[in-house]
Amino acid sequence: MANEDKLREYLKRAIADARDAHLRLSEAEAKAHEPIAIVGMGCRYPGGVASPEDLWQLVSSAGDGITPFPTDRGWDLETLFDPDTDRPGTSHVHEGGFLHDAAEFDAELFGISPREALAMDPQQRLLLETSWEALERAGINPHSLRGSATGVFAGLMYHDYASRLSGVPKDVEGFLANGNAGSVFSGRISYVFGFEGPAVTLDTACSSSLVSLHLACHALRTGECGIALAGGVTVMAAPTTFVEFSRQRGLAADGRCKPFAEAADGTAWAEGAGVLVLERLSEAQRLGHQVLAVISGSAVNQDGASNGLSAPNGPSQQRVIRQALKAARIPASEVDVVEAHGTGTRLGDPIEAQALLATYGQGREGAEPLWLGSVKSNFGHTQAAAGVAGVIKMVMALRAGELPRTLHVGEPSSHVDWDAGSVRLLTEERPWPRADHPRRAGISSFGISGTNAHVILEEPPAASGGDSGDGDGQENGTASGEATTDLSAMPVVPWVLSGRNAQSVRAQTERLAAFLGERDHSPVDVGFSLATTRAVLEHRTVVLGTDGAAPLTGLTDPAGGDAVISGAVTDGRTGWMFTGQGSQRLGMGRGLYDRFPVFARVLDEVCGHLEAELAGGPGFGVPVREVLFAAEGSAEAVLLEGTGYAQSALFAVQVALVELLRSWGMGPDVVLGHSIGEFVAAYVAGVFGLGDAARLVAGRARLMQGLPSGGAMAAVEGTESEVTDILGGVPEGERATVAAVNGPTAVVVSGDEDAVERVMAVARERGRRVSRLRVSHAFHSPLMEPMLAEFAEIAAGVAYRQPVLPAVSTVSGQLVGAADWATPEYWVRQIHEPVRFHRALETTTTEQGVTRLLEIGPDPVLTALAQTAVDSMVASTLRKGRGEPETVLSAVAEMFVRGSQVDWPAMFAGTGARRVDLPTYAFQRQRYWLDAARPVTDARGLGLGVAEHPLLGAAVSVAGSDAVLLTSRLSVRSHPWLADHVVAGSVLVPGTAFVELAVQAGDRVGCDRVEELTLQAPLVLPEDGAVQVQLSIDGAEDGRRALWVYSRPEEAGAEQPWTVHATGVLVAGVPAGGWDLRVWPPVGAEAVVVDGLYERLSGAGLAYGPAFRGLREVWKQGEDLLVEAALPEAVAEDGAGFGLHPALLDTVLHALGLQEPDAGADTAFAAIHVVGCVAVRRGRLRRAGTSVSTRHR
C-alpha cells in the first residue's frame, strides 16, 4: 500500500511537471513566433517623398520619381554622360531616382556642430531625421526612450562620401572618420537618442534593410530590446555605380525599372531612406500604440555556390520564401500579394518570377492569383533602402485597401513561364478587400552578394493600438487615470510646441495650423497628442484655448494676445513665492474649485483641518470654505475682512494651488513666503505636515483675531534707513516700527495709530508718497506681543523637520538654517519681527540662482514687487477679474517656456483624450556637403613654379626675358565664396579679385604699386566647370611693367582665343602715407545706417551672399566714408593666403551704396600691403581715391 501511495504521488508530480514543462514550452514557442508590430514609419524617397503618405500618393497615382542627375554634388556632368556604353569613366544614362535635398540637415536639433555635420555622411544624417520622424509618427516622444533597451538595425552599402575626397579638408579633420564609419551609422542614432539596446549596421547590399528588419524582429522576440528601429539608407555621393554598371550594361537606358516586363533593359539606381519602429505585438497593444501592420514571419539565407557571385539563385529564393512562411505558420495560398525585388533586369526578374511561381503560385486553385508588383517601377532601385520601401508601400496599401499598379510593364516577360503557377502582374490598380483570412503580403529583397531576405506582412488584428480604447491610461494612447480636470471638458486646452530654435517653433506652428485647417480633430485630442508624443526642446510656445476654435486661432495669429505664450529656456532655478495677508478676496479659488478636482479635494481637506483647530473659538462659527465662497455683501463675506478668516483662507487656497501644480509635475527649487505665506512655503519644503501646518496657521489666526482692535499700518516710499530715521525723529516713533521691507524704497510701518499717522505726515513733508493700509491690526509690531506666549505653546506641540529643498527666510532675508523653520521659536519671532522680503528676494535671485519666479496666491502682489527689484521672470497664478483656469494655465505656460518642468500629459488625465496623428517636427535644414576638390598636380612636377596663393596655381618665368606668366583655375567649387557675388543672375568674379591678382603679380616682379588697373570685360563663372586664367606680366621698361589678365573656358580647345578682362601697369615705389586714422572714428564723423543696404542692392541686381555681407559700421566725415568690415568665419579661415581678401575689399566698397546716387566715387586703388587680413577695422573711402588701413584680428 505504501508503494502504491508513493507511486501515486510520483505520478502526480510527474504529470504536474509535464504540464508545467508543456506550458513553458508553449510559452517559449509562442514567444519565438510572436508577431512583431510596426507602430511607426519614416522615409525619404525620390519624387519628393518625405513621408509614408507621400509614398502612397506617388504609387497610387502612378507617379514617376525619376529625375536628371543632381547638379549640387560636384559631379562633372559635362563629361559624365555618354550614350556609348563602352566609353570608360562615363554613364550611358543621365537620370535616376535622387534625393535632391540629401545635403540638407538640421544639425542643431541633434546637437551636432556645423563642422561635424559637414564631415558626416549624408546617409547618417538621413537616418537621424527619419528615425526622429518615425518615432513621432509612432506616438513616441523621441526623448522618452533615453536609457531604454531600444535597438537600432541599419542597412547601408555606400561609403563614398569620404572616399571620393582626394584629401581631408582641414576644417573637418578629426570628424571625418566617425562621420563615415559604418558602425557609427547605427551607433550615432543610439548615442543621440540615448538608446541602450543593440546597435548594428549591416551591409548585404540591396537586401540590407530587409535583413535589418529580420534581425530586429529576432532581437525583439529574444528580449534583447523592447523597441527596435530598423531600416536602411542610400545616398550616392559619387556617380561611380552608374559608371560601373554602364560598363556591365546593367542599367535601363531611360533610367526606369520595368519589373517583369518584356521591355526590361536593366535597373535604375536610386536613393532613399526608410525607418520602421517595431515592438512585440503584445507590448504595442499594452502601450496603446497604433499597430499599422504585423510582421508574422521572416527569413534570411544565401545563394551559396551559384552560377556566379552576383547571379541570382532561384532555388535559394524559393527556400527563403518557404522559410518565411514556416516562421509565419501559414500556407502560401494565404498570401495575397508580393512586393518583389523586381529590379527590371533581364537575368534577375525571370529567376525571381519562377521562384514565386514555384512557391506562391501553387495551391491556389479556385482562388485569387498571387498579385505581383514592385515600387522600383516608380522611383528606381533604392538599394540598401529598397526592402523597407516595399514594406512601407504594402503597409500603406493595407490601410488603403488597394493594390497600386506597377509601371512600365506593357507585355509580361516572355522569359517567364507564367502558366507554371497562379501569379499575375499588377498592371492595373486593384481593390484589396478583407477576406476569410487576414490580408497578407510578402516582400522580397535580394543582395548582389547572394544574401536573400523575405518578410511576411499582415494586417493588424482588429482593434489594435490606440483606437481600441482598452488598456490603462496613457499606456493605451488615451488620457485615463485620476481626473485632474473636469471630465466633460477641459476649461483650458494647452497646445504645447517646441523646437531647437525660434524659427523651428514658428515653422512647427505654421505646419500644425495648415494641417488642422483641413481636419476636424478635437482640440483636447490635439493637445494630448502634442503633450505625449513630442520632445520638449529649448524654444517653446504654448497656445491656450477656452473653446474649440481658440487654440487654432492662436496658431494662425501668434500675436493674438494672452492665449499664446512663447519663450526660450533660461539658465537658473525656479522659485515659488507665497503671498501674505492683504491679497485675500471673496471667491478666490472658486473657478479652480469648480473645474479641477485635485484643487477641490485639497481645499476641502485643508479647510477641514483649519475648522477643527478653529472650532469653539469666538467668531469662528462659519466654515472656512463658506466664508471663502460667500456671496458679496453677505454676513459671511464680511468675515473675510478679519484676520482670522483671511489668514486661514489664504493658507487653504495656496496649499490647494500647490497640490494642483504638483499634480501637473511642477515643483520649486527654492521657496520663500511673505508673512502668512511663509507657512505655506515651509509646508512645501517639508518642514511640517498639512495637519501641523494647519494647527500653526489656525492658532496664529485665532490669536491675532482675539487681540484688541486698533493700531495701523502704512506703506511709505523710502529706504529702510530713511524710514528708520523718521521713526527716530518723532516722539511717537517708539510706538511704531518697520513691519516690512518689500523693496529698495518700499517700506511698511506698523504700530499705534497716532504714531503711524505722524510717520506718514513727516514722510509727506519730505516729498515721499504714503498710503494707509486697510488692516484690522498692526501686524509685525509690538502690538502682537500679547499673543506670543500662547502661540509659543501651540508651536511647541508641532513636529518639525529640516527643509528638503532650499528656502529663504523673510525674517532674516537669508537661506533658512537649521535653527530657523524647524524650531518653534522662529515662528514666534516671525509674528512680530519685520518681513524682509526684499532682502529675501535678492538672496533668492543671486545666491540661489533663481531666474524664474512664480507667485502662488490670489493676486500678483509679490509679482509687482519682484518685477521692479530683480531681473528674473515673474508670473502669478491668479489675478482678480480674470478667469482662474485661464490665469493659472497662463502662469504655468509662462514658467514652462522659460524652463520650468511641467508634466503636460498629467493635465489631460481623466479627459478621455486620444492620440491623433499630427505633423512631424519642422526641421530647419542647412546644406552640408563636402565638395571633392579637383585633384591637384604638383606644379614643380610639371617644371613650373608654385604660386602659393589661393587664386593662383603656377608661375612661369619666360625664358630669354624677364616676363612672367601666372596661371589660375577658378570655379564656384574650388572657390565657393565667389558664388556669393551674383550680378544680374550670373556669378561674376569681383573687380577686387583682379586687384588682388594685380597686387600679387606686382609682388612677384618687384613692383610695389598698381599704378593703373582697367577692367575690360566681366569674368563670368559657369555653374558647372571652371575657367582658365592667365596673368601676363611684360618685361620691365623704365621700372614699369604692363599687366594683362586673360581667361577662357576650361574645356576650350587649343585654338579658342583668350578673353582680355583687365589691363594694368605695375610700378616700383610706395607713395607717401595717407590719412591719420589713429582716432577712430574721427572726431565729427556721423554714423550712417547700414540696415537695408543689401536689400536695396539686391533690387538693383547685385545679389551678395554671406561672404560679401561683412559690412559692420559706416560713418561719414565730409565727403569721406569711414568703414569697418569683416569676413564671415567660414571665409576668414582661408583669409591668411590673401593680401586683402577680395570679398573683404569688395565689402568695404559696398559703403559707396549708402551715398546719394550722384555721389558715387571713381575709385582708384592705392597700393595695398597687408597679409592675411580678415577684418578692416579702419577704412576710409574718398572720391577718386581709396585708402585701407587694417588691423589684424
From TrEMBL:
PROSITE patterns linked to this entry: KS3_1, KS3_2, PKS_MFAS_DH
Record InterPro entries: Ac_transferase_dom_sf, Acyl_transferase_dom, Acyl_Trfase/lysoPLipase, Ketoacyl_synth_AS, Ketoacyl_synth_C, Ketoacyl_synth_N, Malonyl_transacylase_ACP-bd, NorB/c/GfsB-D-like_docking
Source species taxonomy:
Bacteria, Bacillati, Actinomycetota, Actinomycetes, Kitasatosporales
Active-site residues from the entry:
H981 (proton acceptor), D1146 (proton donor)
Q: Tell me what organism the protein belongs to.
A: Streptomyces himastatinicus ATCC 53653
Q: Which GO terms describe its biological process?
A: fatty acid biosynthetic process; macrolide biosynthetic process
Q: Which CDD domains match?
A: PKS
Needed co-factor(s): pantetheine 4'-phosphate
Record-given protein name: Modular polyketide synthase
Membrane-spanning ranges: none
GO molecular function (one): 3-oxoacyl-[acyl-carrier-protein] synthase activity
The alphabetized UniProt keywords are:
Acyltransferase, Antibiotic biosynthesis, Multifunctional enzyme, Phosphopantetheine, Phosphoprotein, Transferase
Q: Where is this region: C-terminal hotdog fold?
A: 1085-1193
Give the metabolic or biological pathway. Antibiotic biosynthesis
**Biased-composition ranges for Polar residues?**
475-484
What residue stretches are annotated with the Ketosynthase family 3 (KS3) domain?
Answer: 33-459
**Record SMART domains:** PKS_AT (SM00827), PKS_DH (SM00826), PKS_KS (SM00825)
Tell me where on the tree of life, at the top rank, the source sits: Bacteria
